[in-house]
Amino acid sequence: MPDDFERMWSDLAPLGRSPSSGGYFRQPFSGSERECHAWFVEQCAARGLRLEHDGNGNTVGWWDAGDGPAVLTGSHLDSVLDGGAYDGPLGVVSALGAIDLMRERGITPARPIGVAVFAEEEGSRFGLACLGSRLATGTTTPDQARALTDREGVRIEDAMVERGLEPQLGKADWLDDVGCYLELHVEQGRDLVHRDAPVGLASAIWPHGRYRFDFAGEANHAGTTAMADRHDPMLTYAMMALAAAKQARLAGGRATFGRLDVGPNATNAVPSRVTAWLDARCESDEVLTELLAVIEKQAGERADRDGTTVAVAAESVTPEVRFDEDLIARLVAGRPVIPTAAGHDAGVLATAGIPSAMLFVRNPSGVSHSPAETAETADCLVGVEALADALAELAR
């Protein structure tokens, strides 16, 4: 017999969890992420779902109970570094639970239903978010993916081979048979808390981008070099990070420097270089473009004063995604409809022309990408029921 929601959750919860922080380290094609994948395979087998793998690391469990365009649901099992339990796995566990609930109700769908687990959704290892769905849809080319490496210089294909996979990067044939996609996800904010609603739908995903800032200066001795004689790229970076935060507040957007690489990275040395990665998000493409232009301008002005240089490169930019209005109208059922500033595989599939929608489950903490991320079991079960109702409607 397949496990129920709470049993599934308790079995998945210890995998990849740090005993010190309580956070999760389920990086793509790592041992802990592969443990999660093995758990998913077992759960699909317990339900008699047909498994299909593509060469991008994505896996789908199919309920072959009908004909015509398939209804796809699911999410991802990888995490950010020291991440939370719910971001991604909640959508996978809820999808399996929704299939169980549909069967308990005696519902036989007229169209196939698939539960997908997409690879490298967070971009925590190879730096490109939603890589699995981007490859499957053709949004990212195989050559672009092959050029990606992790922090240790490991290429994605080598990482896959190391875990016994057979990489064949490229567009996935199985997506050709998908008529629509519905992803359940924990909310990454407190909108539903303020609305006193356990479940809501997404209206759109804010445009967002990841940008690499390379600051260059002059390495020197921390003790013997007078402050006036320094060309310190760390100072340029620090002032620019503060300026970016201010400009994001003024624009009503988000600007975050969460990753930094410094050389020579010594306590008693003025750095010669600083590389910083900016995550920026705004309510519209125009506002995001304007925000980046202001940040770049201020970074250049500060570099001129410091005697340093700065170069900016966009590593990924995703425009605004509007979810399918017809799907939302069919599924809303009196629930709130809210935007999100977080990227998701649903956004990639929507951009590729697959009608897509999202369900959010209330997060009382409002915290995400952190061990403090949470959701109440009662709300999760409401989410499972909402997803089951939606899948039944879409697969009629």
From TrEMBL:
<keyword id="KW-0479">Metal-binding</keyword>
<feature type="binding site">
    <location>
        <position position="281"/>
    </location>
    <ligand>
        <name>allantoate</name>
    </ligand>
</feature>
<feature type="binding site">
    <location>
        <position position="268"/>
    </location>
    <ligand>
        <name>allantoate</name>
    </ligand>
</feature>
<protein>
    <submittedName>
        <fullName>Allantoate amidohydrolase</fullName>
    </submittedName>
</protein>
<dbReference type="InterPro" id="IPR010158">
    <property type="entry name" value="Amidase_Cbmase"/>
</dbReference>
<feature type="binding site">
    <location>
        <position position="87"/>
    </location>
    <ligand>
        <name>Zn(2+) 2</name>
    </ligand>
</feature>
<dbReference type="GO" id="GO:0046872">
    <property type="term" value="F:metal ion binding"/>
</dbReference>
<feature type="binding site">
    <location>
        <position position="185"/>
    </location>
    <ligand>
        <name>Zn(2+) 1</name>
    </ligand>
</feature>
<keyword id="KW-0862">Zinc</keyword>
<dbReference type="InterPro" id="IPR036264">
    <property type="entry name" value="Bact_exopeptidase_dim_dom"/>
</dbReference>
<keyword id="KW-0378">Hydrolase</keyword>
<feature type="binding site">
    <location>
        <position position="87"/>
    </location>
    <ligand>
        <name>Zn(2+) 1</name>
    </ligand>
</feature>
<feature type="binding site">
    <location>
        <position position="369"/>
    </location>
    <ligand>
        <name>Zn(2+) 2</name>
    </ligand>
</feature>
<feature type="binding site">
    <location>
        <position position="122"/>
    </location>
    <ligand>
        <name>Zn(2+) 2</name>
    </ligand>
</feature>
<dbReference type="Pfam" id="PF01546">
    <property type="entry name" value="Peptidase_M20"/>
</dbReference>
<feature type="binding site">
    <location>
        <position position="76"/>
    </location>
    <ligand>
        <name>Zn(2+) 1</name>
    </ligand>
</feature>
<feature type="binding site">
    <location>
        <position position="210"/>
    </location>
    <ligand>
        <name>allantoate</name>
    </ligand>
</feature>
<dbReference type="InterPro" id="IPR002933">
    <property type="entry name" value="Peptidase_M20"/>
</dbReference>
<comment type="similarity">
    <text>Belongs to the peptidase M20 family.</text>
</comment>
<dbReference type="GO" id="GO:0016813">
    <property type="term" value="F:hydrolase activity, acting on carbon-nitrogen (but not peptide) bonds, in linear amidines"/>
</dbReference>
